[in-house]
Amino acid sequence: MSLSLYDISIPVFITALKNLSHNLRKGEAYAAEQGIAEEELTTARLFPDMLPLTGQIQRASDTARFVAVRVGQIEPRPMADNEVSLADLQARIAATIDYLGAVAPDSMDGREAAAVSFKAGTRTLDFTGTSYILSFALPNFYFHVTTAYAILRHKGVPLGKTDFLAGGTPRS
């Protein structure tokens, strides 16, 4: 059995987003226990020129959804990027998971060599379906998920590697 474009993207995104949701729940519990305003987490960033936690989660969501649109040719579901609370971010993650869950596994069949082009600033980026997923979407998605994790850790949320990889649940 070979791996499809769907197999290497959509289920991977869903799993990582569920883990991210788990990490946000731990962040919410930590903020409540420590008497920290949620805004200290949602607006936190690792460096001034980097996006805050809200932006990291919005970009991870966008990246996952754009694979469904650009490779799977699924109707886009725009999201407004107006999240300010941890509950808002959880809703964004849930909506993204719901959207990805509706992607048919065969929607990407035969799209390995399909042209995928989009604007990034002043540049146009050109890929095939396969190269877009492997060399752009997955690395970009994990950059934002990892940065969200790092922001939460930086703010003191007690997260470990297992939280990042398995949403706190060891897998056998």
From TrEMBL:
InterPro entries: DinB/YfiT-like, DUF1993. Signal peptide: none annotated. PANTHER family: BLL2446 PROTEIN, DUF1993 DOMAIN-CONTAINING PROTEIN. This is DUF1993 domain-containing protein.
